[in-house]
Amino acid sequence: xxxxxxxxxxxxxxxxxxxxxxxxxxxxxxxxxxxxxxxxxxxxxxxxxxxxxxxxxxxxxxxxxxxxxxxxxxxxxxxxxxxxxxxxxxxxxxxxxxxxxxxxxxxxxxxxxxxxxxxxxxxxxxxxxxxxxxxxxxxxxxxxxxxxxxxxxxxxxxxxxxxxxxxxxxxxxxxxxxxxxxxxxxxxxxxxxxxxxxxxxxxxxxxxxxxxxxxxxxxxxxxxxxxxxxxxxxxxxxxxxxxxxxxxxxxxxxxxxxxxxxxxxxxxxxxxxxxxxxxxxxxxxxxxxxxxxxxxxxxxxxxxxxxxxxxxxxxxxxxxxxxxxxxxxxxxxxxx
Amino acid sequence: xxxxxxxxxxxxxxxxxxxxxxxxxxxxxxxxxxxxxxxxxxxxxxxxxxxxxxxxxxxxxxxxxxxxxxxxxxxxxxxxxxxxxxxxxxxxxxxxxxxxxxxxxxxxxxxxxxxxxxxxxxxxxxxxxxxxxxxxxxxxxxxxxxxxxxxxxxxxxxxxxxxxxxxxxxxxxxxxxxxxxxxxxxxxxxxxxxxxxxxxxxxxxxxxxxxxxxxxxxxxxxxxxxxxxxxxxxxxxxxxxxxxxxxxxxxxxxxxxxxxxxxxxxxxxxxxxxxxxxxxxxxxxxxxxxxxxxxxxxxxxxxxxxxxxxxxxxxxxxxxxxx
Amino acid sequence: xxxxxxxxxxxxxxxxxxxxxxxxxxxxxxxxxxxxxxxxxxxxxxxxxxxxxxxxxxxxxxxxxxxxxxxxxxxxxxxxxxxxxxxxxxxxxxxxxxxxxxxxxxxxxxxxxxxxxxxxxxxxxxxxxxxxxxxxxxxxxxxxxxxxxxxxxxxxxxxxxxxxxxxxxxxxxxxxxxxxxxxxxxxxxxxxxxxxxxxxxxxxxxxxxxxxxxxxxxxxxxxxxxxxxxxxxxxxxxxxxxxxxxxxxxxxxxxxxxxxxxxxxxxxxxxxxxxxxxxxxxxxxxxxxxxxxxxxxxxxxxxxxxxxxx
Lengths: 336, 323, 310
Description:
The complex is a heterotrimer of chains A (about 325), B (about 325) and C (about 300). With about 325 residues, chain B is mainly α. Chain B has helices at about 1-40, 45-55, 65-75, 90-125, 130-140, 145-165, 185-215, 220-225, 230-255, 265-270, 275-285, 290-315. Chain B is flat. The N and C termini of chain B lie close together (about 10 Å). Chain C has 11 helices and 2 strands; from the N terminus they run ββααααααααααα. Chain C has a two-stranded antiparallel ribbon with strand order 1-2. Chain C has a single domain, classed as MetI-like fold (Orthogonal Bundle). The chains are: A alpha/beta (about 325), B mainly alpha (about 325), C mainly alpha (about 300).
């Protein structure tokens, strides 16, 4: 690690009290984001990936709240600053775009008006100027006939264009960090590819550090330099994407990869779906949360939860099995 | 977008218009048998009056001709003549209509002006005392009989205040018979009836706005707005409220058609010289034609009111214009 | 070939996990019922209505055994007795009639008209709504136009008109009010039918050769019942208010029959010295309508399908 990280999350804890108990949605998550880097966060629904970034942005709605840890942006702890100060950062330094552009855009205001809003809020631009900027941004994100599109309502735009508009909205203030929560999940497959291309282009043009949240490993493979794998509110593996994918150091990552059909896999080998169900957030399994579904579990996994340990060359994993040096790809043979 | 939508709405309204006129015509025709003999017994009417009435009503011509005459008359704003004194219903309507509109529009305005801040306060401060008070108000407001509320208010603010020597509010009429007619006079006369009429609106609308706003605040685009770094006030008033107001527009739209007729009970209780009271007075005198004419007028205004409401929705919510 | 008759197609039972999330799933109706009973206000309101109904039905019994008064018997010696005097629990009115007894008989009128009107409304409205929604096309167009026309008339005006034409009694008033209100039910039912008509179970039933009547009454109607029940509970209150207003205006139930509305109109001039004569009937109306509203809301909340998946 050369320069200081742009964003650093240290041992973040976020809880939601519910009728059936307290849910530790984020249970001691730490990671760093370097300038211009693209970090992927993968996990199932309920793994805590969205809650993590919402906590970073302090966009949690009560009764959810951050109960511990720090979120350092350029050295400032975002969990400690006042709400007005946080608002300065939101939309201007750290921008976030969401999964479904149809519901994430306000249906009663025109697209350009919404896209230009951060400029009016943070840079004090007047309406006319902000709309002009919006036209420019639309062009940059590849929306054809931008002068007309800015006057359109969200429901008048196609799915792909809406997502482009959302991306434009996130980038108008040239933030240092862009957080994209499942940006392609709600889109058709062909549009997904376009949006991913756009994100790559944006990254190249603007140099924004990006956090990309998804449950789609293919998206991560195409876009992210590093990847975080989350399970039951914790980071279970971290590392450079290609290494993590070729040689996973956590059984969950390993199982995810094994359950995907791949062009280069042996057709005679059956796909292995992950057994069991995602854990009930109010009553997690003892020890390692993944142990009921883990093909490699040993006795220790049932009683002690493993910590995230470095395994050399920027890789981290939270697993007793791999920490003892076992290679999961080789271990597969013994599973049959 | 807007114009074709309105044309479609207009087209759909025409059969209803025809239907209304047809129904009133048929009712009048079939009750004609019951009130014409009665006319003969009315000592106030001379034989030539009766003949004139018969002629006016065209009772000797075929049914469809009578209907056509009736319809034609309506299109020319002729709603018939009174059985009692032969005066045109239209003249009464024009006399009284402004008063009714004054009352009902004030009530709606009061309702909107008070329920929006109440609803916002309740939504933003859920579970607070204000919120609970509003719940009680809305459940209760639905159950209070309008005439009883009017009665109680009159007894309190007109009679009792007067008896106690306090400045009191007038209890009947739109303005004082002597010395009256200026703005203050009209306003003091307006207070009680408008309050009673708006009470029901208030109790329901504040509740609606509250729940609509609570729901809007949980939607994705509000999260986006907050993510853009905007203050909560702007989030609520610019982003959420604009959407949350929709049901209120719908509700106001529902009341628009009743703009003319909704105040009947209040008009009677407060002696307000409006269209509702006209119908009531004339009903007591068995002046069928005036009552029918007034009813037809009110019904047609309902149809018109629905059209205006449709226009309002389309203006407020751009998604509607495709329906 | 099937040589045995195909079994009656049962209604699709909507089964969901019970509210606690554990244990075996319960059918929709009994779970809703359970949920309703858990709502304290709703249950209290429901019980109150039941109690009122019993009181109203037992009015002659009560007046004979409990209050010992006839609602119409005048006794000028007892004029304007305030509440609390012996034999006149809630006082007496301008003609010396016992207020309590009159209130009880008034309950009879109000609840009687309330329930009767709603019964008529529901019957006519459901029939129209079912037919319109089910048959669609021209039938739907015609029926809905009719509904539009009926709804275009300001109800109050029509009530006044009809009260002029027909001598008001409990039955005629019910018919008068229902003759306008059915249209709301028709719209409601039609809406329900339209959402139901495309569901798979309808398709399945139809493909088994079920005829129209069977489809409408055995399948569509029961599924529209929750909405109807809620509407019914809420409308009872509204009808009571309308009826009271008509009585107050002198166009409804006439003297000497006691009704809460006409008790109010009689007593307004006596407010200064006999305030209870004005307050009490109004309070009765208020409490009754409040109870029906609360109960109706509780029913709606209990039967709301969206709340199932807790």
